[in-house]
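Revision sheet: C-alpha cells.
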Amino acid sequence: MHDAEKNINAFLGALTYKHYLGIIFGFFLTLAGVFLQLDHITKTQSNRKGSQTTPSISKIIGERGEVNIEGTIYRGSLTDNLTGFGEIIWLDLTSYRGEIKKGLPDGEGEINYPSGKTYRGKLQKGKIQGLGEMQWSDGRSYRGEFTDGIISGNGDFIDANGERFIGEFLDGKPHGSGTLFSPDSSIYMGEMQNGLKQGRGTLALSNGDLYEGSFVKNQMNGFGEHTSSDGETYKGNFKNGQKHGFGLSTFKNGSVYEGQFAENKPQGEGKLSLRDGAIYKGLFKDGKIEGSGVCESQGEKISCTDLLKRDFFKTQDRKN
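Predicted:
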C-alpha cells in the first residue's frame, strides 16, 4: 500500500501543465459525447412515436379507402404526394375519376358536376385542356378542343334545339370557318364571328334558295348572289337580308331588270328588258313602272302604255 501511494505521487509529480490541460479537455469531450448520444436516442424515439401517430397518406387510403384533406376526399391508388389513378370529391359534390398528379386532375379523366353536366377527356393541372367531350343535362353536347376549361379550337357543338356547328370556336362560341346546320334544314358554310354569320359565306335554304356573298350579324348584307328554287337570280347589293341598292335580276319569265332596288323590289332608276326584246328605261316604284320613261322594241320607240300590259309585273307581284 505504501508503495502504491508512492507510485501515484511520483506519477502526479511527473505531469506537466500541458498534461493537466489535456486531461481536462478530454473529460469535456467525453461529457459532450454522452449528451450527443442521449439527444440522438431522444430524437429517434420521438420519430418512432411520430411515425406511429401520423401514418402516410398512401397508408391511410390503403387502410380506410380514402383520405379527407380540408373537405376534399381522395380515393384510389395514390402516393403520398397524391399522384396516381383515383377519385376526387370536392365540397360542392363535383367528382372526378382518372389520372391525378399532386392532388389535381392531370391526364385522362371524367368529371361529373352536380348540375348533371359531364366531361370526358384530357385535363392539365386541374383544368380541362385539350381534346374532350362535354354533355349538358338539357341535351347540348360538344366534342373538340378546350383551352383552360373553355371551348376553343376545332370542334362539333350541338345545341338543345338541334342546331349544329362544326368548325372553329373561340371563348365558347363559333368563331372562324365552319358549317352550321339549322333545325329548319338550312345549311350555312362560311365565316363566323362571336357565334354569328359574319363575312363571306354560302347559305342553302330549306326552300331550295341559295345565297352566296357577304353576311353581317346573321343577315345577307353587302354584295351577293341569290338564286331562287324556281330559277330566278339576283346579283347585287343586299341590306338587312333584302335586295337593296344596285343589282341585276333575271326573272322566271325571261325578263331582266338592272337598276336600283329597295326592300326586294325595283325602286328608282332602272332598265327593264323583256324576253321579246321590248325595253323600258325610267323610274320604278314598288316594282312597277312609275311616271314617264322611254320604251322601245326592236330599236324603235313604242308606247309605254302597251308595255304595262305585259305579264312582267304579274310575275314581279307574285315574287314579292
